[in-house]
Design brief:
With 393 residues, this protein is of the alpha+beta class. 34% of the residues lie in helices and 21% in strands.
Length: 393
């Protein structure tokens, strides 16, 4: 959410401009009749902070793309007390109806994994707008029930009796937009996410000395000091009679899971394997646990919610256990292997649980790029004690 001030849009009844560049997109109605028409539109400079010029450009380009297919657009600020959306767009197609969308603006990297990991408001219908949305990302958003539109003119809008589906538009020249919220930016870098993970996994660490947090998280003392300061400034940590504690931890978990997907998760894989005898997986799990490994991913999620049926197993450990690889005749297959070994980046010797901390199980599911695993993530978030506790903080 932006904290910058906004003003209501001003009405401007100019006729819609024609499609810019290339063949005009077609408006596909659910009845099968194709049509497009001029329209009256509404216009505004949406965000007044001087550094948000590029964000205004993205919003303006998306608004123009909607007008180009005959949709009238009205923009109003979101009510901060009722929605975590950035603003609301009212789309009017005339005879085919009108719908008001809570709208999220995403200006950072947007690939399949991020499209799955990004935390979105539960409200539906929901619209996500971005500088560019590829077809593969659009598939993920559609699977999550999220309508979308980008500055290139790609879009999918669906409600009763109406469907707009435009694909294949090439991205415009990259817009150097700033992140939606630069607050606590260092906390969501690669090493910053290591620190935030430790706080989410063991909230009592927030009251401990910086050096102890550094030991557990695997980050440098200086990094921890900076992250703790930024989290306090951003309101994710607060001081009380018992010392520091987490605040708005559910929101912090959302931001951390997205940052983990972008900045840390890709650095953790050690190797993936195929097991010649799949029915020996449970036996392998016991032996890996004896070697100090902890289980994560969807197999760990199935221990939290037995309604989940995993298709892969993810283990966090210090390195490849060569003796077990030989004993179980594991074949390395980094492309299609279902047994994933990942580097454990934290240090918590007294943690003897066979599972990694549940915030990491959650993050591994949402970072998978698989909408099915994203649904599993939301299931365990509702039933796991630690995740429920974080949402209450």
């Amino acid at each position: 959410m932006y904290s910058s001030s906004r003003r209501l849009p001003e009405r401007d009844e100019r006729p819609c401009a024609g499609s810019k560049g290339g063949t005009a997109p077609t408006l596909h109605w659910s009845t099968g009749v194709a049509r497009s028409s001029p329209c009256v539109h509404y216009w505004a400079m949406f965000i007044q902070d001087e550094h948000d010029e590029n964000l205004n450009t993205v919003i303006a380009d998306v608004t123009q793309a909607l007008r180009d297919v005959g949709v009238r657009v009205t923009l109003t600020p979101a009510e901060p007390q009722t929605s975590i959306a950035d603003f609301r767009l009212s789309l009017d197609t005339g005879a085919r109806g009108r719908v008001e969308y809570p709208t999220v603006l995403k200006t950072g990297r947007l690939d399949r994994r991020v499209a799955t990991a990004i935390a979105l408001p539960p409200e539906r219908p929901l619209l996500l707008i971005a500088p560019y949305i590829s077809d593969s990302v659009a598939e993920i958003l559609t699977a999550r029930g999220v309508d979308h539109a980008d500055a290139a003119g790609n879009m999918r809008l669906a409600w009763d009796g109406m469907l707009v589906d435009v694909r294949g538009r090439r991205p415009r020249t990259a817009t150097t937009a700033r992140p939606r919220d630069a607050t606590a930016a260092r906390a969501f870098t690669r090493t910053g996410t290591m620190v935030v993970f430790a706080l989410l996994a063991w909230p009592e660490l927030a009251a401990k000395p910086v050096r102890e947090i550094a030991t557990v998280s695997g980050a440098a003392v200086g990094t921890v000091h900076t992250v703790m300061l930024e989290l306090t400034t951003a309101g994710y940590l607060r001081d009380g009679s018992a010392g520091r504690s987490l605040n708005r931890a559910g929101e912090l978990l959302d931001r951390w899971a997205e940052a983990y997907t972008i900045n840390l998760a890709r650095r953790l894989p050690i190797a993936s394997f195929t097991l010649d005898e799949p029915d020996r997986l449970a036996e392998l799990e016991v032996d890996l646990e004896a070697e100090g490994a902890q289980l994560g991913g969807e197999r760990a999620a199935s221990r939290i919610d037995p309604h989940l049926y995993p298709t892969s197993a993810t283990f966090y450990l210090g390195g490849v256990p060569a003796s077990l690889v030989a004993r179980y005749k594991m074949r390395r297959d980094d492309d299609a292997g279902s047994i994933h070994l990942r580097r454990r980046f934290w240090r918590r010797p007294q943690d003897t649980s066979p599972l990694v901390p549940s915030p990491l199980i959650y993050a591994d599911l949402v970072s998978s790029g698989d909408p099915r695993q994203r649904e599993h993530a939301e299931r365990i978030r509702r039933v796991d004690d630690r995740l429920v506790e974080l949402d209450r903080l």
